[in-house]
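>> received
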Amino acid sequence: MMFGIQDLTKEQIADFEAKNPGIKIQFLENDPARLNAMLASGNPPDIVIGPAVGSSNNNARGLATDLTPYLDKSQVLKKEDLQPINDSFRWDGSKIGQGGYYGIVKDFSQDATLWYNTALFDKAKVPYLSDTEPTPYDELLAIAKKLTIKDGGKTLVFGLGLEWAWSLIGPMATMILQQGGQVYNADLTEIDFNSPAARRAFQWYVDFAQAGVGPTSLNPLPDGSDMSTFSAQRMAITQDGYWFGGNYIEDKKMNGNIRMAPAPIMGDKRVSPSYGGQGAWIPAEAKHKDAAWKLMEYFMAGPPAEGRAKSGWGIPGLKSLASKLPQDLPYQKQAYAVAQNELQYAAPLPESPYITTDACNAAIDKQLQRAIKKELTVDAACAAVTVEINKLLKQGKERIG
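>> returned
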């Protein structure tokens, strides 16, 4: 198995082996470069951790096993119990959302949602965000400006963090969908960042960066994540999913001052997606698929899954485990209510099998930086993004066929 070190404890591995005599686990720490080398050599791990969103590239390349026959026979994992985020692991040969299941989600969050520090809102005399109504993105930027505290050239408190280093295509695609726009053409071979909806999303990111209210790739956080800065009360709002609350169970100073809010909106349509949906898949050339499936069942529905749900580190990939999410502390109860209400606005993000998420993010960030520095207009930057990504899509299509 190639998983993260936090995904399965030694005790859980021992428990699985005791319950499944004849199966021994060899643990490999998650390493994308090593995984690619193993896949290329035809000797992959038997089961691999990975996100549902973005999985279409693997599926189009024939790297993953269709798990539907296993699901049909399983007494543990049932299709009707899978949260909709699992649809991002589905593949019909040309697009996600239908067809066979090529992975199972362990947990997920609707990643456009917000967490905020009420103490910093009180200090700035800014009203709290609604628990049920989405904040328009333009209003969110105005709020961020009020919450930002600077001293000379130094920012003491960031008004808003976007986890810029983690994703750009996900948030921008969400903004485009919220405006009723389209990201790709019908056969997913071309992207259009020249549309009014895409230019508006891109412009908002430029405005955010030029306002200096939060970290960007031109002004990054040292650790590339909002968590430590938010925990130090040097960030008032961070755009992170439900899972983010798991950081604060033991932090009494913080957990009395944090709340969760719905995903912001750009346009008229509420869309609150997941940018990842971490799960597991079985490579097509795995040598021990039946054993890997047994581990899949244990990991997704057994003691590890129950423990994850109770910890609050994400919403379980199974509907039947949702009742185990923690509600003991006031902030947990508030976040649970927000997250449950937000589920009705969940929607899969569009993705093309001919390009990776990382490649999209890199192309967007390169042109964002140029627009932020006023080397290009927003229109010219969006045109450049369109040209660069479409070139990569064409290359991907030629490779995959």
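>> The longest strand covers residues 48-51.
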